[in-house]
Amino acid sequence: MTKNEIADILEQIGTLLELKGENPFKIRAYASGARALEAIEESELDRLIAEESLQSVKGIGEALAQKITELRTTGKLAFFEKLQASIEPGLVELLQIPGLGPKKIRALHGQLGIASIAALSEACRAGRVAELAGFGEKTQQKLLEGIANREAYGRRHLWWDAYEVAAQILLGLRALPDVVRAEHAGSLRRGLETVGDLDFIVAARQVAPVVDWFCAQPGVKEVTARGETKASVRFSSGLQADLRLVPEDQFVFALHHFTGSKAHNVEMRQRALARGLSLSEWGLVSAAGEGTVKEKVGAAGAARMVTEADLFAALGLRFIPPELREGMGEIEWAERADLPRLVEESDLRGAFHNHTTASDGRNTLAEMTAAAEALGWEYLGIADHSKSSFQANGLSEERLLRQVEEIRVLNASGRFRTHVFSGTECDILPDGRLDFDDDTLRQVDYVVASVHSAFTQSEEEMTRRLIRAIEHPLTTMLGHVTGRLLLRREGYKLDFGKVIDAAIAHGVIIELNASPWRLDLDWRHWHRAAERGLVCSINPDAHETSGLLHVKAGVLAARKGWLTRDAILTTRPLKDVTAYLQRRR
Ligand code: DGT
Ligand code: CA
Ligand code: CA
Ligand code: ZN
Predict the structure, then answer these.
(1) How far is the centre of ligand 1, averaged over its atoms, from the C-alpha of 243 (Å)?
(2) Domains (range + CATH), the chain
(3) Which of 65, 113, 422, 554 has the highest CB neighbour number within 10 Å of its CB?
(4) 199, 234, 457, 515, 567 from 529: Cα distances, Å
(5) Could you tell me the pTM of the whole model?
(6) Which atom of ligand 1 is closest in space to residue 188's alpha carbon?
(7) Which of 99, 226, 213, 219 is nearest to 161 (CA)?
């Protein structure tokens, strides 16, 4: 188990103990133990365990040292399993409602006997929750909203979560001896930020074994439909998946159809009709009048329809990448001869806006840099939180300057091939001023300006606030512009046109925050914004080494926004990026 996985379990133990009403000191010991563990590097952890000196680390006592050792060496912890089993699952489920922590859940359980979301909803609607001490009318209303949101959001899943499940299934399908071709389709293939269900298209020599295999996947909780050539399953996470088996000569048509989107399919069908053809999930045939035998587009033509590129070509189009198939002008785009080449993951040479253990990250500066080096990146931008983000352990001026020095020493040491840029994720204060003074801001290589407070400002106030931050001469880029958390929280209201215009006018970059629950600024804005000259930076906002991989989701979103390599700072080589940042200092 990695140190961060172990830290997650320690935190969960803290939460569960709090649900049980354990002594606060004991509870806090788990949270601070998790922090202390994150500050140790993986190799150091193994050494401490081997030398049995883990308990000498500040924040880790004898009992915690034992538990960490058990988790590291066996991947399990008997104490944790017992603890989980001793708590009603409904109480743990209540933790998913925003605004409900262990303390409030204990009060609801103790005083109203509430032990499930359904029971909470009922008690709120009956007005009983508002009467409890520490709750009130407003809290009750908020809880009801949280429950309603959870139901609405519960039907969709983050692209990243869906992708992790789908990638495994796809590998498994392709490894089956009977399978000739297998692809995923639907919104997942289009790289949409949230996914309703997974869609798989398979061509196989024998279908029954494939259906059997699919229905027996680990994590399948229920087989909701099962036929000779299709099946639908539901995983314990609630995610559903559809499998469709098709004859090999129909594969590209099925793949194209089930990739969608619906809007794209409608336009494609209209285009086919205008050419006397009829396009469907089964094929492309001549659209002769009713009752006549539909004739394949020439036997030879049909035989050549092996890839989607063939299908598009039959309609006089270039290949349209799945990410663009949203019915937003991609067909006119594909008629052109000089197609722009969309950005690809391999174009990335680095990323900005990443956190370390100095603020709320879970890996040290050296660990983050090593991970960036392993990805082959030429540079890595660190940007820990600023002082006003105290909830995220934001850095004071003094701590920031110490980090700048630490980064300078690291770069000079030649320990890593990856260059580290020192930065700050500087809070934009409610009035639009930045959290650090200019002298401090001049000490870092770049400044990501982000909103982390006063989310409820009006559209006018928020727009003015962001524009003031953009006008600051030391702002390099705006972080997660709308603050949205997918499936959890809407972004704040903004006049996008004004903010984007101001950014272009002042040469400020807007980030495409690649964190799977943000993907902010939304891809729908990028096409027009980039055409007008806005520069993008694909930033993972990583809080641990594995978070750097999230750039994959950012690249998909960028492609959905029609972005080419040229529009993106982080595709440029180190020397150009260095020059670019220096111009802004
Ligand atoms: P999702 O699952 O809600 O995130 O979105 P999709 O796009 O994956 O939708 P899904 O799973 O219902 O269907 C997959 C694709 O199949 C969809 O993108 C387009 C195609 N499709 C499904 N139903 C229809 C339809 O009624 N008309 C057309 N033109 N296409 C359809
Ligand atoms: Ca789908
Ligand atoms: Ca589906
Ligand atoms: Zn942030």
Answers:
(1) 13
(2) 3-153 (1.10.150.110), 157-246 (3.30.460.10), 252-334 (3.30.210.10), 345-583 (3.20.20.140)
(3) 554
(4) 32, 39, 24, 21, 10
(5) 0.87
(6) 8
(7) 219
